[in-house]
Design brief:
Number of helices: 7
Strand content: under 5%
Organism: Trieres chinensis
Radius of gyration: 13 Å
Shape: globular
Number of domains: 1
Number of strands: 0
Keywords: Repeat
Mean pLDDT: 83
Protein name: Armadillo repeat-containing protein 8
InterPro entries: ARM-like, ARM-type_fold
């Protein structure tokens, strides 16, 4: 499948922004969760990125420390926004709902 595919170069807005994100010295930044949240916010209109991002959140949220980081960085609102932006895309809806479930269950 296309779950792990790299995003096209045209989705990178500016090298300066990329450097700021990737040079983060926080534990959350080193896990890539901050990058995921930032990408989903920047490219809210991109359906396939939203679907892949939500599916990533489903899996990331399986680890309690990572789930806490996702919630702290706004994962719940990011998943809800994906659903709101793409109401007719069944894949986004399913994956975002699954992500929300994983984020809120203890």
């Amino acid at each position: 499948g296309s779950e792990g595919m790299l995003q096209p170069a045209d989705m990178i807005e500016g090298q300066e922004d990329v450097n700021i994100i990737f040079n983060s010295r926080t534990a959350v930044g080193s896990h890539g969760i901050a990058v995921l949240m930032d990408s989903m916010r920047r490219f809210a209109a991109h359906e396939s990125l939203q679907a892949m991002g939500c599916w990533s959140m489903v899996n990331i949220a399986l680890v309690p420390e990572q789930k806490a980081a996702l919630v702290k960085l706004g994962g719940i609102s990011v998943a809800a926004d994906a659903m709101a932006h793409h109401p007719k895309n069944a894949e986004v809806q399913f994956r975002a709902l699954f992500a929300l479930i994983n984020l809120v269950i203890p």
